[in-house]
């Protein structure tokens, strides 16, 4: 199978289990789940899917020599995302605004009820091993560590939002050593850390995301409360959920108002002294490793000021939204 990734280029994918997973209903559904949630209203032309990111994580792990089991784990790591991605954390009581962790919390149970266990059995691959994150330290690590998931979504986003024109510099300076990601120099590590910081502060935890998460979350919450949709419907696609809710716009003025808000048809500003909606966002920062001679150091060890920035940026961001309607 020939696959063209918008940031990594062209690949020939031949592993039977990978091909079966890519062509499975579980992975195909992610083609219609927006990576950011519902960001087109704020940044037209930047839509990219959870499928694109998932295959990107797989390709990144493959490029840097991760074992097939870790490549599989990378490919399926987002299959439990609902429609509108992390917006679900703002729609369900089970979600956490500060952690945006609902997808992680339901991941194992979701996978076990999907078509993925059968595919893995057909290839003699142990499901429990794949579901155990501790087996895959290149794929997943806690902030502020680097991991394949974080590397892919930040570089992919940076290209799509035109913060950078390509990823070659970062890929050429990146190494996977002993289950850890490390850059070849302080300069390249710091450059990546600064890019990641910009992506987080401007996009992932910026005002536009605050408005998106609050408005989409409120819209979905209203639809769930009024039983226009069920929680099971959230595990279809973005388009399908909207298709099921839209017929109720004409009879539910509040729902239509929330829809207008999420489509940026209603003005909004951050106004701590006079607000009608509060929202908390997960904030991110990384402290990459890099090689200096025979030593592996963190950016914060070479530049102590970076440690303070990381500590500050890992605190959740709070916004106080004032809508004009």
Fill in the keyword field for this structure.
325 residues, alpha+beta, Hypothetical protein af1432, four-stranded mixed β-sheet, three-stranded antiparallel β-sheet, 15 helices, 12% strand, globular
Describe the fold and architecture:
With 325 residues, this protein is an alpha+beta fold. The protein has a single domain, classed as Hypothetical protein af1432 (Orthogonal Bundle). The chain is built from 15 helices and nine strands.
In short:
It is built from 15 helices and nine strands. The protein has 325 residues and is α+β, with helices and mostly antiparallel strands.
Topology at a glance:
Elements: E1 2-5, E2 9-12, H1 16-22, H2 25-29, H3 50-63, H4 68-76, H5 102-112, H6 116-122, H7 127-131, H8 148-160, H9 168-172, E3 174-177, E4 180-183, H10 186-204, H11 207-225, H12 238-245, H13 253-262, E5 268-270, E6 277-281, E7 289-292, E8 295-298, H14 299-302, H15 304-313, E9 317-323
Parallel strand pairs: 4-7
Antiparallel strand pairs: 1-2, 3-4, 5-9, 6-9, 7-8
Helix pairs in contact: 1-4, 3-4, 3-8, 11-13
């Amino acid at each position: 199978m020939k696959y063209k990734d918008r940031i990594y280029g062209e690949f020939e994918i031949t592993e039977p289990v990978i091909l079966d997973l890519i062509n499975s209903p579980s992975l195909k559904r992610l083609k219609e789940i927006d990576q950011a949630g519902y960001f087109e209203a704020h940044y037209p032309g930047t839509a990219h899917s959870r499928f694109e990111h998932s295959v990107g994580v797989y390709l990144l792990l493959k490029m840097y020599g991760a074992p097939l089991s870790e490549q599989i784990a990378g490919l399926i790591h987002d299959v439990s995302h609902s429609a509108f991605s992390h917006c679900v954390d703002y729609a369900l009581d089970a979600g956490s605004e500060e952690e945006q962790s609902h997808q992680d919390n339901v991941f194992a149970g979701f996978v076990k009820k999907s078509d993925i266990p059968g595919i893995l059995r057909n290839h003699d691959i142990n499901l429990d091993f794949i579901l155990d994150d501790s087996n895959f330290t290149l794929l997943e690590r806690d902030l502020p560590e680097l991991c394949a998931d974080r590397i892919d979504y930040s570089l992919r986003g940076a290209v799509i939002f035109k913060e950078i024109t390509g990823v070659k510099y970062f890929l050429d300076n990146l190494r996977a050593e002993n289950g850890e990601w490390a850059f070849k120099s302080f300069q390249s590590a710091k450059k990546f850390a600064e890019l990641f910081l910009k992506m987080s502060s401007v996009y992932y935890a910026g005002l536009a995301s605050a408005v998106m998460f609050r408005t989409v979350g409120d819209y979905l919450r209203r639809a769930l409360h009024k039983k226009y949709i069920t929680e099971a419907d959230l595990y279809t696609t973005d388009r399908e959920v909207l298709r099921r809710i839209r017929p109720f716009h004409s009879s539910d003025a509040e729902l239509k108002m929330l829809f207008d808000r999420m489509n940026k048809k209603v003005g909004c500003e951050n106004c701590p002294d006079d607000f009608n909606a509060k929202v908390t966002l997960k904030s991110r920062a990384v402290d990459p490793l890099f090689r200096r001679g025979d030593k592996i150091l963190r950016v914060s060890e070479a530049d102590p000021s970076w440690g303070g920035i990381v500590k500050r940026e890992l605190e959740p961001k709070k916004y106080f939204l004032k809508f004009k309607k």
